[in-house]
Amino acid sequence: MPEDTPITISQSSDGTMYVPGSEIVENANVTAYMKQKGFQSYHDLYEWSVRNPQEFWADQANELEWYQRWEKVLDESNAPFYKWFVGAKTNIIHNALDRHVKTWRRNKLALIWEGEDATRRTFSYQGINREVSKIASVLKSMGVKRGDIVTIYLPRIPELMFCMLACAKIGAAHSVVYGGFSVEALADRIEDAQSKLLITADGGFMRGKVVELKNIADEAMARTPSIQTCIVVRRTGHEVNMESGRDLWMHDLLALPIASEKCETVPVDSEETLFILYTSGTTGRPKGVVHTHGGYMVGTYATLKYVFDIKEEDRWWCAADPGWITGHSYIVYSPLIAGATSFMYEGAPNYPYPDRWWSMVARYGISILYTAPTAIRGLMRFGEAWPNRHDLSSLRLLGTVGEPINPEAWRWYYRVIGGERCPIMDTWWQTETGHFMITPTPVVPLKPGTATRPFLGVETDVVHEDGASCGANEDGLLVIKRPWPGMLRTILNDPERYKNSYFERVPGVYTVGDSARKDEDGYTWIIGRLDDVIKVSGYRLGTAEVESALVSHHDVAEAAAIGLPHELKGNAIHSFVILRAGVEGTPQLEEELKAHVAHEMGPIARPEKITFVSTLPKTRSGKIMRRVLKAQALGQDVGDISTLES
Ligand code: PRX
Question: I want to staple 435 with a disulfide (CB 3.0 to 4.6 A). Which of 116, 160, 303, 365 is the partner?
């Protein structure tokens, strides 16, 4: 290729595919790996990787450092409780920090952070290591031990990352609760994890307003007795209640001699718990998904390297919140393992103006941007003039995650943001999978709206209820056919629920919970969730959680929640409420109930609409038939209602 050939991707002759230009293919990390393995095409590399998944994953693991190597890559003897890199000693922090501070990377920029108020903070690898070591020393001297679960409830500030890393360093597990969640959500998660220590902040900034995290934390702590100590990070400087004997300022602790910059990273077993992350399931309370050090470290690293093609000189921006799996895997852990420079932004994408994001891409020279369809749709509605005011030529790759991206948003992202030169990595995965599962790499031809094909070493299928494969373009259940290193290991305190939720519907494989179809090119198109999980702006919420927040209001006798399509959010929550006898369903009460859900669960769970009803459609065994409510709301045929209570 001559040097002045522009980097480009072009549409296939029939207009359905976007084919990466040869410069992109030639320079991709995955092409180097393909050549190293002696393959001529990505397709051949993929075929080899699924015939030899253990060899593929061991190759990736060999790029990292281990205190002690594994005896076995995969142990399937107690399926579905799989173990990876069995017998190995490691700690994800060794690869994320310790390994780098021994080399020239100690002075490389690891994190650039911009606050919503335009404050800027930057940290080298050495700088992060220092902060993490100090926090880890403090935690240790406060009695946090290997295996303890520390709950973290912080805004999108560097300390969120540092506290997570500090827990991992001393072998404790973190349970991060998203800063947009509220009282009941936080209390439930603290209680399930039985955390003794909570780390929160005096608040965070969002759209110019202060989110009162400490007040919410106070209410949550009043509902659950397990927390003995609460460390408070100062972010806003606003005055907060500090309960003596329980609450301590982080900056006071870090000023004490116990906050040593020398803190050894604790070697742990490959299978030791790294973190718990709660996610919504079909029924009841959120599930505490358990992830471990070894396999997760390998899986997140390999996917970032090959999918987002991370190179030494990149500036990587994953615009998610660290409090969700996307942030855990691709803000906190894998970019550090890869030795990358990351950017993190605290606030809202359109604050104070709709070009906030684009101005930051230009100012920091972001080369790879990874976000969600809801954010793209949200920014798209302000028009092209806002991004066009900025030089976005530093971008070379784009990404999306969280829900299917509508082709219109894909094309806008591709054309207006990516300048028709950046391939879009549509990554399909879940809290449970830990890392990307179905995704292109930069060498794969793209179609707007599909995450294309499974990642290397991963085999997926779309099947009927009996496990038989569906034909091309036939709807079915998405399944993953073999274990992968970053998979969840269990559900905290509930191994039975782990088995029932994922491994029983179709025996022998992992059932995802999504319906999907595969087209004639083998590309997977996600249709939606099959269970009572609603994706609101890409965030995963359970109908059960919204309903339980509603019935905790004194005027509500019963409630049902469903998701209905919404132009910006993908789905919005609609609720149906039976009031207690004698209470009248007024517009004021509707507002009060919406505010109540937002108070208990968080603003993202606030219902779009509440309808007061006198009955709810139920099965004879008393289960609410949400699909009937949904069909009615959409004016569709309600389908088979033979089990409906008469
Ligand atoms: O329904 C799929 C959807 O998000 C679900 C997982 O949600 P969560 O655990 O919150 O993780 C989201 C971030 C990894 C999936 O079951 N989903 C995720 N990514 C995509 C997607 N749907 C379509 N396309 C995607 N790229």
Answer: 303
